[in-house]
Predict the structure.
Amino acid sequence: MQQEPVYNLPSINDEVTHLQPQQAGTFMRKVPPQVFALLAMVSVQSGAAVGKSLFQSIGPLGTTFLRLGFAAMLLLLFWRPDVRHLTRRQIGVVIIFGAATALMNGAFYVAINRIPLGIAVTLEFVGPLGVALLQSRRLKDLLWAALAAAGIVLLAPLGAASNVDLLGVVFALIAGIFWGVYIIFNVQLGRAFTGGRGLALSMLVSAILIAPIGIVSGGPMVFEPHILLIGLAVSALSTIIPFTLELEALRRLPSRVFGIFMSVEPAMAATIGFLFLHEVITVRDLLAMLLIITASIATSLEARSAHQ
């Protein structure tokens, strides 16, 4: 996508916006772009489910290290960024974006170690939703903020009706906060670099920052061949494959439609969690997710119409 992307409600793989698309083949053009958006969501949440399978062996932070480490390696090999002539501004943006990426992913993996995947993704959406609401000047958006707040309250571990772990909720919200920072500096990164060079450098920063705690918490098992292989699969499912799929979707989908698709990602996460992790969520949790998804879709629509 050549123009600057819309950041109302981006997916967890916004780094796709820095890639410059190539001419799609005949087969790619025949596939509806909605299919690519859907497959990207499936890939991201499947990657989270596979990553969760590593937690017993190397913990959530060890898994985060493998995901970011492999992503950095692959992106550096592809983009081969030249670091000899970086400006102070470029270095600053790379460090902040890389730190936000590391904190976002680390907090999210800690969260899904304690709460169901669908609930964690729903709570994490508070980040992009908050960014969209802060950028809005419409009174109507207060309604969507209230809906999202009601959903968060329902998901909060208050009373006997809730079975959600408090610490898991806190880490999911922290992940959401850093997702918001990630979105803001994603724009800055796109302006400071061409192509995906800034993204590759930022991923390197993320991997370096998470490496000490990831290696210590994961222990020697982090470097076991079968663990590395699964970690590579997590990185591919969570980052590289969605890059390609979202890129193709963004080439042919209006940003408003893409935002709406991404807004239903919590429902996709809940489905993946149920099918592959046997995670069951309550009616109360489903209602909370519905409120937050509704707020996300409405905010995406309102923000888009405000710029028309």
